[in-house]
Amino acid sequence: MNQAERIQARHLLDRRGFLRTTGGAFGGLGLAHLLASESAADLTGKASIRPRIDPDRPYAPRPAHFPMPAKRVLVVFCPGAVSHVDTFDYKPMLAKLHGQKPPHMPAVTFEGPSGNIAKPFWGFKPRGQSGKMVSDLLPHLAELTDEFCFLHALSTQTSAHPQGENFLHTGFVMEGFPSFGAWTTYALGSECSELPAFVAINDPRGMARSGKNNFGSGFLPAAFQGTDFTAKAPPANLNRPAHYSAADDQVTNDLLARLNSKHLEQFPGDTNLAARIASYELAGRMQTSVPDIMDISEEPESIHREYGTDTGSNLKREYARNCILARRLLEKGVRVVQLFNGSDPSGGNGITNWDSHSDIQDTHAMQAEIMDQPTAALIRDMKQRGLLDDTLVVWCTEFGRMPFLQGNGTGRDHNPGAFTCFLAGAGVKKGFSYGESDEFGFKAAVNETSVYDFNATILHLMGLDHERLTFYHNGIERRLTNVHGHVIKDVLA
Fold first, then answer.
1. Interatomic CA distance for residues 421 and 150, integer angstroms
2. Torsion 337-352-163-221 (CA) sign
3. DSSP per-residue letters across 24-60
4. Cβ(280)–Cβ(256) below 8 Å
5. Residue-wise over 146-182: b if at least 16 C-beta within 10 A, else e?
6. H or E stretch at 125
7. pLDDT tens for the chain, residues 1 to 493
């Protein structure tokens, strides 16, 4: 140690040097705490509102951030990208320029060279009192146009299906983030103690491309993952052996409850353990509630006829039964019901979703035959029963399709720049359209709406502030809308 170093060491050890050094250290700690507090405000200036969750009762109902009419939500998701220009977004310019090369548009898109502009493959006509132009592809939904609030200027960040599904449902293109349903049940719990708070009714052909990520809990407690089953297939592990009586089952469940309670006492604060125990206990209650809710044979013949469980293809009949199941779950107070119309093409043969890179007339027509009548019947049935007064309906797809054909001349490629979804029910304007794509349906042009805005609005209609509903994970206050999104106030009733 040289002379200068010895002098510096003495200063550090004397009273004045000690106070100066430790004072700086405590100042650094204070700064770190301040920065942490600022991160907890989610970079918006608003303090986060974390629900107080009893680990023993994770599904108990919890108050919303503010009062709104929507108490539950039905999400009808059509994977594969429904063509907006062939369904709900009428573009006369496509008929005018049919067969011509598209101006100012890319020569190459997601799957290769682009072809010529193509008019809609189905005719459009005005519907209802609003006079909204809707395609003949979906005649049953078209009859309900006056109930819908269309968003025509949606855009997304990706043109790949799995990432598009992730982004729509979780706010991130990567996997591992909580889904909309998980965020909602994390915040609000459920008003039904005998059924899951969040149910995902998968397509009869299987799951969509992104699989369970579409209804997963990500880094939220495991209790908030969606439970997947269909009208044909009940949740796994619910069947009691025939030789085992209900009384024996109850005695066993009571014993397990006592053992689980003692086990949980040994690991206080272990939310994952508490979530597993709560899930098993719910599974026990579901042994009696689920068979009853799934027995749609008790529905009147008129309901089966309206939904179409007795006509059309087998896939349509199965999807129709899923729609009846969705209504029965909502009636029982299930908070989030997610209904899928389409699956991963790698999981089966033939047409499995709305993806239409070739033969769009065949692919879209097949999917429409499955989806149109049952979905319209579901919404109409909900209205007649008063469910639309406090239920939000979300019809959505991950992105749109191009106004021009692919090089093969029969299909439309992916279009992340513009697509259409609609809302209906509690808190939403009826017979209303918000935003516009350009004259070709190629890009959002008026009131462009991001997926962040879309999800922020849905949460708002459920009484949740998307900027304050957060979860601290890996040093970041995460939320469904990341650090983006605005509520679309023009669509609120």
1. 6
2. positive
3. HHHHHHHHHHHHHHHHHTTTTT--------BTTBTTS
4. yes
5. ebbbbbbbbbbebbbbbbbbbbbbbbbbeeebbbbbb
6. strand 124-127
7. 555 555 555 554 555 554 554 454 444 434 433 344 344 454 555 777 888 888 778 889 999 999 999 999 999 999 999 999 999 999 999 999 999 998 888 999 998 899 999 999 999 999 999 999 999 999 999 999 999 999 999 999 999 999 999 999 999 999 999 999 999 999 999 988 889 999 999 999 999 999 999 999 999 998 899 999 999 887 765 566 667 777 777 787 778 778 877 887 788 777 677 767 776 666 666 666 677 888 898 899 999 999 999 999 999 999 999 999 999 999 999 999 999 999 999 765 567 999 999 999 999 999 999 999 999 999 999 999 999 999 999 999 999 999 999 999 999 999 999 999 999 999 999 999 999 999 999 999 999 999 999 999 999 999 999 999 999 999 999 999 999 999 999 999 9
Which amino acid, 292?
A: D
- pTM recorded for the entire structure: 0.85
Q: For 87-122, give one letter per residue: b (16+ CB within 10 A) or e.
A: bbbbbeebeebeeeebeeeeeebbeeebbebbbbbb
Quote the tokens at residue 147. 């109930």
